[in-house]
Amino acid sequence: MNVVGYIRVSTQGQARDGYSLKYQEDEINAYCKEQGWNLIHIFRDEGISGAKLNEEALEIDRVGLQEMLAHLSSVQVDFVVVLNTSRLWRSDIVKGLIQRELKKYGCDIKSIEQPMYSIHKKDPNDFLVNGLMELLDQYQRLEIALKLTKGRNKKAKEGGYAGGRATFGYIKQKGEKELKIHNGHAEVVKRLFELKQIHKKWSLSRLAEASTELLSRDLYIRTNTGKWQT
């Protein structure tokens, strides 16, 4: 069974009170040896609170923990071994974030001082926190989408290129920020406007059919005259 360890102290006081990194490391090594588990690595954070969180990005500001989660994404690990779950989190929000990541990778927690603990056990507090986390995720996605839409609309109103697929009649060159007229399509667009003036009752579908006919005829003429090919 493959496992990794995680150790953390937030203050010098914790180290004096029996939670030193060395003590945690020795306990994890001894426990894994006793269980016959393959301890791949022990990740560590020193002088960092278990409640520290980048609230804007909803990320946990701990280098050691982030390295551990990155490791779990590439290597199959069965357990994260800790002396106590307080080494992983000190707040419900951080707890919810860590548990969600571990479940994503099919990994559980093994706490030496809490032998019956599992992230898969039902807890009303976890249900509430996970629900709030999902709502926050949805809110952030909507907020980002709204900002992007506002930015694109503003750029379009100013006559700029707002991103996405170039409108028919224009072409976007790689590396450039502005649209250019597609010479091959320009005549078709001009002809469509003329057709709309003549056939005012034509639907968009009928105009689309006409554009297909015009493009096919234009391609045929230009290909056979040697003037232009696509």
Biggest β-sheet description: 4 strands, parallel
**What does the radius of gyration come to?**
30 Å
Which range best describes the helical content: under 10%, 10-25%, 25-40%, 40-55%, 55-70% or over 70%? Answer: 40-55%
- How much of the polypeptide forms β-strand, as a percent range? 5-15%
CATH architecture name of the largest domain: 3-Layer(aba) Sandwich
How are strands sequenced across the largest beta sheet?
2-1-3-4
The CATH topology of the largest domain: Rossmann fold
- The CATH C-level name of the largest domain is Alpha Beta
Count, helices: 7
Global morphology: rod-shaped
Low-confidence stretches: 53-58, 219-230
**SSE order:** EHHEHEHEHEEHH
Indicate how many domains the architecture comprises: 2
Structural class: alpha/beta
- Gap between N and C termini: 59 Å
Mean pLDDT across all amino acids: 75
> Quick one: how many beta strands?
6
